[in-house]
Write a structure and sequence with these properties.
- The chain is of the alpha+beta class.
- The chain is built from 10 helices and 4 strands; from the N terminus they run ααααααβαααββαβ.
- A 4-stranded antiparallel β-sheet has the order 1-3-2-4, with helices on both faces.
- Helix 2 packs antiparallel against helix 3, helix 2 runs parallel beside helix 6 and helix 2 packs antiparallel against helix 10.
Length: 184
C-alpha cells in the first residue's frame, strides 16, 4: 500500500490510528516565532496530508524521495524543514560549503539580525575548515542563542538560529519523536 493509502485509509482500528504530528507545529512555532505562514502550511500538511504531499511532490522528487514508498515520519519531518526554509527560518548548507558560504546563508535567515547579527557581522570565516567547526565557533561567541541543524539524514545541514531555551525544547521534542535537532 502506498503512502496515501496508509495516510487516508478508512475504517482504522483503535490500534491503527494516524500518528499525531502536531509536535511539528510546536517545533515550527519555536523556530519561527509562530510565523503565520509557516504554521498555516504545516497545519495543512497535518490536516490534509494527501493534498499536501501531492501538491509538494516536486520537492520530494528533487530530493530523490518517492512519496509513495517513503515512511510517513520522514515525509512529515522533511515537510517541517521545507516549510521553515520556504518562509525564511531555515537555510540549507552543504557539508562541503566553506565557512564564508555558511555565514552568507545564515545571514538570509529571518531571525539573523534580531538574534545574532551584531555578534557575527564582523566575524572572520576564512580560517575554519568545515561547517561543523565553523558552527561551533559561532556558538562559542553567542550566549543566549545558538545555531543548530535539523537532521534529515542528508549531506546538508538544515540550519536554524534559535534561543538556547528554544533549542532545548525543540531538540527534546525531536528526540521524543525519533528525530534530531543538533547544536554545533
Amino acid at each position: 500500500m502506498g503512502l496515501f493509502g496508509k495516510l487516508m485509509r478508512k475504517n482504522r482500528s483503535d490500534d491503527d490510528k494516524m500518528p499525531d504530528y502536531s509536535y511539528l507545529l510546536e517545533i515550527a512555532g519555536l523556530i519561527s516565532h509562530n510565523d503565520g505562514s509557516a504554521m498555516k502550511k504545516l497545519g495543512v500538511c497535518i490536516e490534509d496530508p494527501s493534498g499536501y504531499f501531492k501538491a509538494c511532490s516536486d520537492r520530494y522528487d528533487e530530493r530523490g524521495i518517492d512519496i509513495n514508498k517513503c515512511d510517513p515520519d520522514t515525509l512529515y519531518w522533511i515537510a517541517l524543514v521545507d516549510e521553515l526554509e520556504e518562509t525564511g527560518y531555515v537555510v540549507s548548507a552543504d557539508w562541503k560549503d566553506d565557512p564564508e558560504q555558511v555565514l552568507w546563508a545564515l545571514e538570509s535567515i529571518k531571525t539573523f539580525d534580531e538574534l545574532v547579527g551584531s555578534v557575527l557581522s564582523d566575524m572572520d570565516a576564512e580560517d575554519d575548515a568545515d561547517v561543523e567547526s565553523f558552527g561551533a565557533k559561532i556558538n562559542a561567541l553567542l550566549e543566549k542563542v545558538c545555531v543548530c541543524w535539523i537532521d534529515i539524514d542528508s549531506d546538508c545541514y538544515e540550519l536554524a538560529i534559535v534561543t538556547v531555551e528554544a533549542f532545548e525544547r525543540i531538540s527534546e521534542i525531536a528526540r521524543e519523536n525519533g528525530h534530531s535537532i543538533v547544536k554545533f
